[in-house]
Design goal:
The chain is α+β, with helices and mostly antiparallel strands and about 750 residues long. The longest helix has about 35 residues.
């Protein structure tokens, strides 16, 4: 047989995108990935089958939950080995290892295994373990996330942060200007999420609840049909009666039903069935479109600033032309210099009329922002803009009124200064929100890894498939059986109950080499099924899935402030008052210098006097010293860094890691599989018997050309070099082809039996 006559070396790879997904920032909570390329053993298969069916006797036993502190885990591979060791024990219902918090949560049957046995098993793997004696059912500290609208600079975020910190029951509050979100750690026994939202709204900003941090899922359903008061009451009572439903909130105007529930006990498909059955077929329920999503809010904000900027240009450009350009065009100059009353000219009146809408209608947002800031004893960018533009605008009104009432007053207005300042600031804000929108694209790409639909299948009592239907992947519930077709994405975290295939897990592990999957093996939502059909039982859905936790980790990293950002925030508290003081000092120095003729008269432009020159310098200092750059530079850099890292498979745990990265002078990798180009390539061939290399590769390629395995493709690609026609090679026909998952292929080529694969 040819298979005994050769050894082949292949260089397997993992793309650049995965090299740090283990070492920089391990994946949270669901570390089921192996440390090395997997080869199935009898122990693993048996362990996998234990997941599928627990002995009948244990179903009636009471399950217990134990929480262990595990010291020494460095990456997802460590967590994976701990989780695998625990799950091999008899009587284990489920186990989850959180590498970020050094915890392991185990659900087990006390009749089959004890807490001491679980602890000893963890220690046998090589880590220190200790049972944590605490009540698992009620959390004393929750983490709430709020989306905040209306923040313009670090003074706003500092005001909100201080207001939240002052609320009794709040342990820690963090407000991120770049992401426009707040993360609050609070005691639910002392304060509620609604009270936190009220605290934010009392500071003058709008707060939208993202999550309360409780161990419940939340879903919004849209109800179509006659949603009368009677139906609303019936739907509410029917949903409240379901086990696992925590809260039901119905908005009759929007036809929206918001349900908080425990995913272990119920799910969104149950809610849809209840609503539709309650309405006797007249009501139809579906998942509510995400109209209040972060992306849509960002799009509205971008569009709003764009419209404001365009309208400001409509008024500002004529003001600029009448004051700076038309004054040098004969004919137009005479028309603009024509006097209306005393020394009041047509040009001055036009500029006053055109700049007023810019100052008070288009620039209204700056007055509102300044009022909110001053009301709470702080000063922000809006205060500077309002002071600077008002100084220019109202001084200009003074010159216009003085000219209208005096037969010999010669003054210059600054209407173009105030309107052009507002226009340029609006342009800056537009570019700023545009940049903010792009930084969150990486998280959106992560969320898009999950498929939109899934095939739900049902079994009868004998284990035969009786129905298949396509559902929205957001409707998947725990213990559902999902069918995954070749080339399709795995819709949910779970384990294989039927079928064999290879799954590309590079988006999680960084390993480009597909992992063989068979009955009992764990799969991760968002990964790609290469060949073969798989039936998967869902175990982690919604916010519990690995993908959701990766997104949450990236969002938390973007919330975290780098040390240099904390320093910048401290400076920004004193920045605005200092700038106002400096602008007043600047005006005073230049005014006194002009009064006492301390500088040549030629420095003063012919159209203005020394007071007006000093006023221009004072306004310039006030407006140009914008604190936005100071407060936004670092968080924007952190957002871009963590976002781009996530899209490349690198999870970075906050700004501190990025800030410290320049000090790194040595990187240690725990494996070499991910340091290659990501495509397996044949690098060497060693024949153990005399044979022409071309003939040898002809036999091998004839067998492997029928396989979809990446190594098979690499071998066929290399074999083309020995073919007469490298572009369109013709291989001998292979008969009786059999692919053995995880081992290799065999076939009959000509009069020889060819076996290509591992030694086994």
């Amino acid at each position: 047989m040819v298979s005994k006559g050769f050894l082949m070396s292949c260089l397997g790879g993992g793309g650049r995108e995965g090299f740090a997904s283990r070492s920089l920032s391990p994946r949270p909570h669901y570390p089921s990935m192996p440390k090395y390329p997997r080869r199935k053993s009898t122990v693993e298969v048996v362990g996998g089958e234990d997941l599928e069916a627990t002995p009948e006797a244990t179903e009636e036993e009471e399950k217990r939950v134990a929480l262990f502190s595990v010291v020494g885990m460095a990456c997802a591979a460590c967590a994976g080995s701990v989780e695998k060791a625990i799950k091999r024990l008899p009587g284990i219902h489920d186990a989850a290892v959180d590498v970020l918090n050094d915890r392991a949560q185990v659900i087990f049957y006390p009749a089959f295994v004890s807490e001491d046995t679980i602890r000893e098993t963890i220690e046998d793997v090589g880590f220190e373990a200790e049972l944590i004696q605490e009540e698992m059912k009620e959390k004393s500290v929750l983490t709430c996330r709020l989306r905040i609208k209306g923040m313009t600079c670090t003074a706003c975020s500092s005001t909100i942060e201080s207001a939240l910190q002052d609320v009794p029951g709040v342990h820690k509050a963090l407000v991120a200007l770049a992401t426009e979100e707040a993360e609050v750690r609070y005691d639910p026994r002392v304060v509620s999420a609604n009270q936190l939202m009220e605290a934010v709204e009392n500071t003058g900003f709008e707060a939208i609840l993202v999550t309360t941090g409780e161990d419940i899922n939340r879903i919004e359903l849209k109800v179509d049909g006659p949603f009368s008061t009677r139906y609303i009451s019936m739907v509410n009572n029917s949903l409240q009666a379901l086990p696992g439903v925590d809260d039901v909130n119905i908005d009759p105007l929007l036809h929206k039903v918001t349900i908080s529930y425990k995913p272990d006990q119920t799910g969104p498909r149950n809610f849809i069935e209840i609503i539709e059955s309650t309405g006797s077929g007249q009501l139809k329920a579906s998942i509510y479109p995400e109209v209040r999503g972060k992306g849509l809010h960002r799009h509205e904000e971008i569009n709003q600033y764009y419209q404001c900027f365009l309208w400001s240009l409509v008024f500002t450009i004529p003001v600029f032309l009448t004051s700076m350009v038309f004054m040098y065009i004969p004919g137009i100059k005479e028309a603009l210099d024509k006097k209306i009353v005393n020394m009041l000219k047509v040009g001055e009146l036009l500029r006053w009329i055109l700049s007023t809408p810019v100052q008070f209608i288009i620039g209204r947002r700056f007055y509102v922002g300044a009022y909110k800031a001053l009301r709470h004893g702080s000063a922000n960018m809006d205060v500077l803009i309002a002071l600077g533009t008002n100084a220019a605008y109202f001084y200009s009104i003074y010159t216009v009124l003085r000219a209208a009432t005096s037969p010999n007053f010669m003054g210059t207005d600054f209407f173009e200064t105030s309107s052009m300042l507002i226009s340029f600031i609006l342009l800056g804000k537009y570019l700023e929100v545009l940049a903010k929108g792009k930084t969150s694209e990486a998280i959106a790409k992560l969320m898009n890894l999950a498929p939109e639909t899934a095939i739900l299948i049902s079994y009868d009592n004998e284990g035969n498939v009786i129905s298949e239907r396509e559902i929205d992947s957001r409707l998947i519930q725990k213990n559902d059986i999902i069918k995954v077709m070749p080339g399709g994405k795995v819709a949910s975290d779970g384990f294989v109950i039927w079928g064999q295939s290879h799954v590309n897990e590079s988006m999680i592990t960084g390993e480009s080499r597909p992992v063989a999957k068979r009955k009992g093996d764990i799969v991760i939502g968002g990964t790609v099924n290469e060949n073969g059909v798989l039936h998967i039982r869902a175990t982690h859905v919604g916010s519990e899935s690995a993908l959701s936790q990766i997104v949450r980790l990236v969002e938390s990293a973007q919330m975290a402030k780098a040390p240099v950002q904390k320093f910048a925030d401290r400076i920004s508290k004193y920045f605005v008052p200092l700038v106002i003081l400096l602008s007043l000092v600047t005006w005073l120095i230049w005014f006194l210098a002009g009064k006492f003729r301390s500088y040549p008269k030629s420095w003063i432009p012919s159209s203005i006097d020394s007071f007006q020159l000093a006023l221009q310098f004072g306004i310039s200092v006030m407006v140009i010293a914008c604190p936005c750059a100071l407060g936004l530079a670092t968080p924007t850099a952190v957002m871009v860094g963590t976002g781009v890292g996530a899209s490349q498979g690198v999870l970075i745990k906050g700004g501190q890691a990025l800030e410290s990265a320049h000090k790194v002078n040595c990187i240690v990798f725990d494996k070499t599989g991910t340091l290659t180009t990501g495509n397996p390539v044949v690098i060497n061939t060693r024949l153990l018997k005399n044979m022409v290399l071309r003939d040898f590769y002809e036999y091998v390629a004839a067998a492997e050309v029928n396989s979809e395995h990446p190594l098979a493709k690499a071998i066929v690609q290399y074999a083309k070099k020995f073919s007469t026609d490298e572009e369109n090679p013709v291989w001998p026909e292979a008969q009786d082809f059999i692919a053995i998952t995880g081992h290799g292929v065999k076939a009959r080529v000509g009069n020889k039996e060819v076996v290509v694969g591992i030694r086994a």
